[in-house]
User: Fold this.
Amino acid sequence: MAKTPEMNKHRGFPAGLTGTQWQFTIRRANQKVTVLGQWRRHPTLDKSVALADAAFLHALWHYFGTEPFERGNLDGERLSRLFGREILPAERAFDPASYQALLKINEPLARKNFPQSFEDVMEV
Assistant:
């Protein structure tokens, strides 16, 4: 049996968007790590999808700010919705399949695409 990779847990980070199916963190490391990639954002009638993206970015901003952060227990699918645009690799030797990968917020683009995420309090 393969060894489960080490994963940092971001204590105090919101688990997800309350009242929806959208999660922001995972409970435990998986042997097969979700590979981060740039997912296309399709327009949808489900407004909770865009709200979850904005709320996740809001949580990232208020938890990490401008500092690089470790992927850790942050949900790979939610990160992939913002990856390559609002969230970028923060290291040259970036491994998209590592829980230790360092990321950073692309603040100028994130402020442009999700201005509500940078307010002190975000209404959901």
In short: The CA atoms of residues 71 and 99 lie 5 Å apart. The first strand starts at residue 69 and ends at 70. Residues 47-64 form the longest helix (18 residues). The chain has a mean pLDDT of 92.
